[in-house]
Each structure stands twice: as C-alpha cells, then as structure tokens.
Amino acid sequence: MLAFVLGILYLFLFPQPSGREGYFKPVWSRGIPGPQAAARAAGQGGAAWFKAGRHFGFVRPEGELQYAAETLHGVALSDAGFINYPRVADNFVFQDTGGGFQYGVRGFGYPLLDSSGELLYSVSTDLTELKRLDRDGEVLWSAGFFVPITTLSLSREECAAGLLDGTLKLLDARGRIVQDFIPEPGRIPVILGAALTPGRLAVLSGIDPQRLSLLERRGGTYAPVAEILTGSDLRREALVRFTADGRFLAYETETGLALRELRHGAGAPLPLPGRLLALSSSEDGLLAVGARAGRGSVLRILRPLDSPLYSRSLAAEDLFLRFLDGSLLVGFPGRLLRADYLEG
Amino acid sequence: MRPTLLALPLALVLAFPAGGFDWPLEKVVLTATFGESRGDHFHSGVDLGGGEQEVRPIAAGEVVFSYEEGEDRSSVPVGLGSFLVLEHQGRVRSIYGHLEAGSMPRAEKSFDGSKPLGRVGATGYSLGKHLHLVIIDSEMRSLINPLAVLPPVPDRQTPVIKELFLRSGREPVAVKGGMSFRQGTTEVLANLYDLREDVSYAWRMAPYRISLYQDGREVAGLRLDGLHEKLKRDGTPELALLESDRGFSELFESEWLFRLGEVKLVPGQTTLSLFAADYAGNESSRDFPLTVTE
Question: A203: burial class by Cβ within 10 Å (0-12, 13-18, 19+)?
Fold first, then answer.
C-alpha cells in the first residue's frame, strides 16, 4: 500500500512533460477514508464532493476532510450533501456535507439529486418512472414512460430524459413534457446520451448509424443546428458533456472521445486506450480525461483541439477527476489528491 | 388458444405470431406478474425465480442497450442492475434485468438463441436472485404482459377473493353478510390476488382479469394485458392500462386492493359479484349480497 502511494506521489512530483511543458504541483494528498474533520455546522465552508473508489466524501480546498464514507450501493451527490442508499432502499436520507442528518423521506426506487442538492428525484427500479419529491416526501410530479429511461440530464429549469425507444423527452420544472425530440432513428432507435445546458442540448442516438444531434434554444423550443454521424456502434449509455467554458462538446465514441467546437463546428477525435472513466473541464479551458489502460488507467490533460499537455499512466483501475477553482481533484481507491496544473 | 388471448387487442395478437417466443429460463418459476403494484408504479414485467440458471433470449435478437453494474457509468441510478435489451422482429423488444454481474457477453451484438445472454442474478434493486423480464411493443408504444405471448405455465391455483369494500365517504367499508348500505353511487374496491403454484404458503401475485357484476350484469372490469403512456390532466405522462386507460393511482388503493369502479345502489336487495381469473385460465368468483336503504 505504501509503495503504491509513494509511486503515485512520485508520478505527480516528478512529471515527465508530454507535448507542451506542463506539470502538476501537488497541493495535498490524503488517504481515504482518513481522519475526518470535527463536526462542523452544515454549510460552513465550501467543501467539495469527491469519489475515491468505493468511497465518497467532502473535502475542503486546503485538504481537510469534512466527511468520508463507503458507498452502500449507490450515492447521490450534490454540493449541499448526499444520499447514500443501500441496494434495497425504502427511504432516502439526505445528509449534509459533514454527514449531519437533514431530512429523510419515503422513497421507491433510487434517488437522484441535482447538482445544487435542492432538487430531489427518484427513479423507479424498472427505470420507467421519474418523480420529483419535496423534503417532506410529497411527490411534486411524476412522469411515467412505456420504456426505460436510458439517460438523464438535469438543469434547474428543465430535465432531458432519453428513452429506450429513441425519443428524448424534455420536461419542465413541473414535469410537463414541453418537447419531444426524435432524432433520425437509424436502423435501431435508442437514445444513448444527452447533455443539457442553458440554451443548448446535445443528444447521442441510434444504432446504424449512430449520430450526435446538437440543438439550440430558439424561442420556446430546441431546434437542431448540427448533426454528426459518429461512426460508432455503442450499445450502452455514452457520456455527452458540454465543457465548463461553454466552448466545446465532448462525447464518447467507440475509440475514446470526440470533441467539437460549438461556434465553428471544428472537431477532433481523442483516442483513448480503453473505456472512458472520468472527464472534467475547467472554466479556463482545460480538459482532464481519465481512461482505462490495461490493468491501470491513464490521465490526460489537454486544451480541446490542441495537442495533449500532460499524459500519465496510473496504477489505479478507477479514477475520479474534478476541476475545482483551477485545481484538479484526483480520486482513486484509497486516496485523494489535489494538484495544480501549471504550464511553463 | 388460451381464452385470455381472445381478450387481447387484435393488433397486439397480430404483432406476436403464435410460437414466436420462448421462456428465457429452462426452469420457469413465476414469482411476480405483470401489472402488480410496486408501491407507486406498475410492475412492468414478470419476475422469474428458479435459482441460478442461464438466461437465453426469448427469440433471436440484436442488442440495443446494456448496462453492467460496477462497470458502466450511468446518469440514471439503475434499479434493474445489470441488464440487456434485445430487439426482435416486428419491433418487439425484450429486457432481461438483475443479471449476474459479469455474466453478459458484452462483445456479442446479437443472439440467435443458441448462446446464453447471461445468468440469473441479484444485481440492482433485488431481494434475491431472479430475472425481471419485460416485453415492449415499440409499434404500439406499449409494455405488454409477457404471459400473453410466452408459452403457458402450469398453474392450478385459483385466485383468492378476500374482501369487497364500498366507499361513499373517505374510508372503504368491508361488505359483510347482513350489512346495509345507503342508496347512492359508491366506489367498489376488491382485495384479491393470485397464488404461486409451487409453494404452499400464500405468495401473492396479481390476477390477470377482474370483473364486477351487479345482479348478474357486468358493471366494471379490468385486464392487466398491457400498459401504455397517457397524458394526465396536468400535462405529465403516466403509464395506464391498455384496455381501460386507468393509471396506477386510479387502479390501486394499496398493494392488493383494486379500485374497480362505481356502482349505483338503489333501495332493496342487490348482489355484487366478483370474478377473477389468472393467465392460466383458473377462475374464482364470490357473491356479496347486501341490503340498500333509503
């Protein structure tokens, strides 16, 4: 264990530049789970959620661990707190970033939180029903579909639910269907991924061919503005995400990742050695990508459509990446690191 | 032809030629039926126990979607556990849920029936090893009762009709011998269920068909043969029975208490009769005579 930790630290402390000169300056590294901060009042001080293998928790920017626990079966994480739920759950218990009890509600299926933690949803076990609940457990709305939900993307005002039948349902904050988007189905219709951000929607769909549709809000509805045949044959959920700087769209392909610049439509593939494990982008245009590589993984930092800035093989099979205020949180089983990426 | 198939909409029957599908398990033990209450939603398929077994496709089909618990990332919390979706001829899809982790051959893109697609497991929201089997008719945009299109399963157990309730105010009142009710329109609820063939204790499952008669005339009924989407008054979609268009909350008062409909009671003697049948054709009926006062 010690050798593994020292090995990881060595890689971050003595990086070998790849492409443009870039390196990580480790800020801190800590074992997970480790000693947790003394109980502090909920909401006191900007702790960020993370994952590290089967563990998750909240850590403060200076590295103080506010809370860490092992995931029971799954965990719904948000900036305000979490719901750690067992395989068979009949209630959802929301705890704040320090682990303090906030509320508990009766729930069927599994819970889901929006990024702020203010909106609580549940998804039925057969994936055909999405519900929004309030903190008293009252069902604010429910939406039932004749096929399972294959992908979900939530924003404050809208919810994009991709379905097995090849339809993407756009729901408003009251659960009403405000738009059905049905991409060209190909030989087999199915929605494989979706990303929703204010004013923009991206949908990955279909088998033979597989296509990515980019839509923009015009008036009250989203209208297609571009369509790309991806050349992939994925038959599982695929990641689709807009970057934090709002300039690019990243989507998973059979060979890795593809990036598309939103304004001019320029695109480029980003081949990966194995399955995409994690992706995070910073507001200043950096993209961190983690992928499986043999029995380990690889971490790459790049500016989209530019040559890679940093590439490093890691021994861990699982990887968590999250940009936070210019720093990168890197989580893997048993450890969490914070490192600043520097160029020069 | 099984009598229940006669009740299916013609289009549904035409979509599924006889003998086109087979059970996905060698040993079929039905542990939950289609349309049962799952607390806040309909059970969208059938559950099959029978211990650790290989799972085979119900017909030759192509993989549309799959999820492997512990391996795949998902934006949706997946209660189905590891699952696989196949597309068959005629735009019919089948879903195999709670498969054993790692048992799906992920490289395979189609199955002709000669190879298993996985093993029965307990991944996802599952209390024990079982297969959750769902059949979807994409053409009709509906979930259909797998028992309607798969070969008959031996079953000699008749459904159990426990109680009949009338509700004109807030609380339902059980109908018992010699009771009097006031005239007017009242809602009728029935506590009934079907039983498993293979166990001696009362493992409950939903029947397939329920009818309510008043003095020999059918006044309400329902069949759990399929579910489709409908829009509620508030503009949100919900699943509803194909045949009667009734949503979950319109059908279930609680897990085994079905809301059947309304009857008009006029002064005098009247008899309400309940009829229930399961998919194997086993039938039960029970009369509830009552006195109606002004």
Answer: buried
pLDDT tens column, A44-58: 568 999 999 999 999
Q: Is A90 inside any structural domain?
A: yes
Residue numbers of the domain that contains B193: 160-293
Contact residues, chain B, for A108 at CB < 8 Å: 38-41
Cα distances from A1 to residues A5, A10, A331, in angstroms, run: 6, 14, 16
> What are the distances in angstroms from CA B238 to CA B24, B227, B228, B243?
29, 10, 8, 15
- Phi and psi for A51 in degrees, rounded to 5? -130, 150
User: Is residue B46 domain-resident?
Assistant: yes
B12: pLDDT confidence band, cut at 50, 70 and 90?
low
Q: State CA A115 to chain mean position distance.
A: 10
Residue B128: which CATH number? 2.70.70.10
Given B148, B178, B200, the domain boundary residue is B148
Same domain, B181 and B283: yes
Assess contact for B23 and B58: CB atoms under 8 A.
Answer: yes
Q: Which domain holds residue A135?
A: 42-144
Kindly state whether residue A297 falls inside one of the protein's structural domains. no
- The answer to whether A83 and A52 are in contact (CB under 8 A) is no
Which 193-252 residues of chain A touch chain B by CB within 8 A? 193, 207, 233, 235-237, 239
For B133, which residue in chain A has the nearest alpha carbon?
Answer: A126
Contact A74/B at CB under 8 A = yes
Q: Is residue A279 part of a domain?
A: no
| Contact (CB, 8 A) for B100 and B123 | yes
pLDDT digits (tens, 9 = 90+) for A278-315: 999 999 999 999 999 999 999 999 999 888 888 999 99
Would you mind telling me the total number of residues written for chain A in this entry? 344
Strand partners, A123: A110, A130
CB atoms within 10 A of CB A130: 27
A146 with B38: Cβ contact below 8 A? no
| Locus of tokens 């000693």 | A35
B157: closest CA of chain A, how far (Å): 28
Q: Which two tokens stand for residue B115?
A: 């190879």
Residue A134 sits in a domain whose CATH number is 2.40.10.480
Q: How confident is residue A13, by pLDDT bands cut at 50, 70 and 90?
A: very low
Interface test with chain A among B36, B44, B98, by most A beta carbons within 10 Å? B44
Does residue B8 sit in the same domain as residue B143? yes
> Encoding tokens for residue B177?
């011998």
> B248 and A144 in contact by Cβ < 8 A?
yes
Search chain A and give the residue with CA nearest B40: A108
Is the pTM above the cut of 0.80? yes
Q: Which of B106, B113, B32 is nearest to B69 (CA)?
A: B106
What residues of A are in contact with residue B45 (Cβ under 8 Å)? 126
CATH number, domain at B232? 2.60.40.10
Domain termination site, one of B96, B122, B148: B148
Q: Domains in chain B: how many in total?
A: 2
C-alpha to C-alpha distance for A121 and A139, rounded to whole angstroms: 9
From A142, A146, A207, residue closest to B236, measured CB to CB: A142
Q: Which residues of A touch B77 (CB under 8 A)?
A: 74, 76, 109-112, 123
SS3 content of chain B, % helix, strand, coil (to 5): 5, 45, 45
Across the interface, of B39, B41, B64, the residue whose CB is closest to A188 is B64
